[in-house]
Amino acid sequence: MKRIKVKSLLSKPLLGSEVLVKGWVRTKRGNKNILFIALNDGSTINNIQIVVEAASFDENLLKDISTGACIAVTGKLVESQGQGQNIEISASSIELYGKSDAETYPLQKKGHSMEFLRENAHLRFRTNTFGAVFRIRHAMAFAIHNYFNDKGFFYLHTPIITGSDCEGAGEMFHVTTMDLKNMPHNEDGSVDYNNDFFGKETNLTVSGQLEGELGALSLGDIYTFGPTFRAENSNTPRHLAEFWMIEPEMAFYDLKDNMDLAEDFVKYLIRYALENCREDLEFLNSMIDKALLDRLKFVVENEFVRITYTEAVSILLASGRKWEYMVGWGRDLQAEHERYLVEEHFKRPVILTDYPKEIKAFYMKQNDDGKTVRAMDVLFPGIGEIIGGSQREEQYDKLLNRIKELKLQEKDFWWYLDTRKFGSAPHSGFGLGFERLILFVTGMSNIRDVIPFPRTPKNAEF
Ligand code: 4AD
Ligand code: MG
Q: Which of 245, 359, 392, 441 to mutate to test the pocket of ligand 1 (most atoms within 8 A of CB)?
């Protein structure tokens, strides 16, 4: 007989039919005559109840079926006599695939702390919460490809190993095959990379944007969706050293077009979750964050506020607040400032534009005032910055000047500069932090709990 997934079984139950289900035991209860097993196979948050007449089965087999064990069950699908479920399987045969030692299985009881589950990340998928989170994570990845495919964007695979630092922040993990105990040096004391694997200094990418721009300037509209790496020592609930980013890049878009796309894109994703991940969201709404569903609906239904950085600074200065970090024109905004604007002042998502050029990356289009650039950050309640993007500097001279001013290595960017020499075009793009999106959509509070195996300072287990 062919195995059926619990999700399909529950969606159109054929009462009276023989079925084969396979999954992991969540709980077993009952008495010496009859047992009730709650079985979960990961396809849905819902378990299927297995009813076992003890007299028809080997006593030792039944003893071995404990929480965490993996079994295959054949039986008849019947209307449930008990409360809490409509249907159940009356078991005719059970095969035990894998026992689970009752003494040492870590997920015995309910209500483990998030920290404990993080230490048991190899098993935490088997909890209701993490099952829901990772099903939603999948749905969001699928919806992202759907959205861009429908709009005629091309999925571009940008390299993971690069020789450049897109954000210019120097927060890179080096990639080398050289012997760290015995590095060759140049006469001036710097490391000689000539004999390294790539014959030059390389690192894991912090962003696929620069290569994405090359694609946009011939394919028109592209997006990347891949892992990015930042060696920033930020131990916060919103930072990972390895995270996934979606970076659309569009020829002929100005900053307004860029903002319109960003707003439409995240609203589409949230709407998709509301329509396609209902049961998981309802579970998270009841167990993790009671305001989750209302917040998701609110964001979909309301326009984002759009103001400049300069206006935001005035609002913060006029707020009468005592800030931990000082507010002043030219200073970068901190999480406390972003959250004040979003959660207290405007009470909705905010897009801030036109930041001082000193606090933004070299590639952003310079405004005529000589002080600001066409940057945009999308700020979300509970999260802060979820998207960062800009219109790009498309003029060769201005771009080269900025590279020089910032003392970046001009030779590392020859191919990037070439696009501004040969058929340059106005263009824009942005990066959405995938895990920050998942944080928002699931209501989880720590970014370590929305990626299967988080990488953070001093932590690379699993
Ligand atoms: O603002 P960022 O640094 O922008 C870029 O990398 C641009 N190259 C994007 C572009 O224009 N194509 O990063 C973009 C987003 C942030 O808004 C945030 O959501 C996420 O990436 N992000 C992180 N997420 C988790 N952990 C980190 N350490 C992150 N750093 C950035
Ligand atoms: Mg940013």
A: 245
Cα separation, 103 vs 97, whole angstroms:
19
Q: Mean pLDDT across the stretch 283-296?
A: 97
**First CA to last CA distance, the chain:** 36
Tell me, using a 6 A CB cutoff, whether residue 243 lines ligand 1. yes
Q: Residue 401: helix, strand or coil by DSSP?
A: helix
The helix (run of H) or strand (run of E) holding residue 337 is: helix 335-339
Q: Give 142-177 pLDDT, tens digit per residue.
A: 999 999 999 999 999 999 999 988 888 889 999 999
The pLDDT of residue 178 is above 90: yes
- What's the gap in Å between 185 CA and the centre of ligand 1? 34
- pLDDT attached to residue 226: 98
Cα dist from 83 to 67, 75, 79, whole Å: 21, 20, 11
Q: For residues 330 and 194, what is the distance between their CA atoms, to the nearest angstrom? A: 40
Residue 166 CB less than 6 A away from ligand 1: yes
pLDDT on residue 110: 74
